[in-house]
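Page header: ASSEMBLY MODEL / two components / 543 residues total.
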Amino acid sequence: MSATMTAAHQGAPNGAALASATVLEIKGLVKEYSAGKPVLKGIDVAVPAEGITAIIGPSGTGKSTLIRCINRLVEPTSGSIRLHGAELTGLRGRNLRLARRRIGMVFQEYNLVERLTVMENVLSGRLGYVPLWRAWLRKYPEEDIQRAFMLLDAVGLPEHATRRADALSGGQRQRVGIARALMQRPEILLADEPTSSLDPRTAVEVLELLTRLTAAEGVPVIINIHNVDLAKRFARRIIGMSGGSVIFDGPPEELEQHHLRAIYGGEDWL
Amino acid sequence: MNSMTHDPVAPLRREWQRHTPAQRISRWMVWLVCVAAVVWAVRSIDIIPEFLADAPEQMADMLVRMWPPDIAHYYPAVHNAMIETLHIATLGTVFCFVLAIPLALMAARNVCTIKPLNVLAQLGLVASRSVNSLVWALLFVAIFGPGAAAGVFAIAFRSVGFVGKLLAEALEETNPGPREALRAAGAPWGAELLKGVWPQVQPAFWGIALFRWDINVRESAVLGLVGAGGIGLVLDDAINFFQWERVATVLLAILVVVLLAEIVVTRIRARLI
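Prediction written out in full:
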């Protein structure tokens, strides 16, 4: 499956031909925060069913909005988003929650609950599954607890389970964030600038971890990232956005100087 | 130095003023209004000069009559009333939270997004604060008859506005990030509040609870003046019978309890944060 997919998405970024290898399909997505001023101007993207897809582009171009439209933290104005063929736009109430728990998310500012322990932060990835009384009494199912321990081992924080989240460093917090997202057993993982608050070395370590764990669990990733070099290094596919539109869509090898000039504008910085 | 005409950077000089002329005039107006208000207030309250003049004398006389305090009177009369006062303060605080938590959740604009409910809750909180606890006590004495029950309700209803406002503010100051993360994980609204918001407001919550209890100990000490139970009743009796030594005992007892409450609350609060 992976072979056909890599072959397929090189030429035709949004063709129906790769529907079989596509986990998420976005068509004609428009978002206007105020009427008549679209931030996203009709985005068409098909996200492959494995590997990392990186979205690059200047600040304010709608990368974050695009990613947040997928799990509906931001309400799209029009267009279609399909996860495994099921439409996500227009879902409400319980159906929206059921869809959201299939989509993991990692944030730039980690968004951990600072005053709770690392263990409880990881377990909070199950809040879409466990009943409220269990969460309240901290009686999570044994299976969840074992998986949380396993994920803490996997992200390299086995002995931090009982520490409070606010006692961790930035890199450690993001590792907890990744563990929390994987706790959902998501079908896709969204990462909104997950390394922008980290130093360069920690950023690489966190991305390596993210790549390794999501590959092991077979979870495709969409990642917003400022750093073009990191995007080229970790992503199998790069989507370049500028002014609310997709202007590059292809494998990292095909991303060249003139593309970057078109995405970011100017050339003095290159 | 150089005169202005020969100064080569003269064209680049700019004048910097902190306030525009309009701002300066309005600042003067504010001061003028303040002074006028004070003058008006002093003129209208009709201080009788003779009474003001012999106030130190009267004060000294009262202190002499209060000395020595009638310590023997403390047990059981004052003691039992003091315990009742503490019970009124504690029950009133607990009951006030039962009312204040739903109101605070309704008033916090990031928790309850229904505008009319925000306004309604704010209105309730303001109404509670706008009535003094003695006035609440008068109302509840009329309803329940004299006694501690009226005191508990008076304390609770007066505290709701204070506690509800502070809780609502604490809720509004929470970081929306963790909540967003839980929402993204598919958590229902209740779980979002329980795991994303409550841990953030928890220190503020206990701080407010202790602070209000501390205030309520002091407030419930005067409720007896209008018949709503507690040590105020004993104080009122002693004043009415001109038993100044007993008045001194009661005042000392209140002072000691308030001091102890203050110490306990400060200690616990230091550990919470």
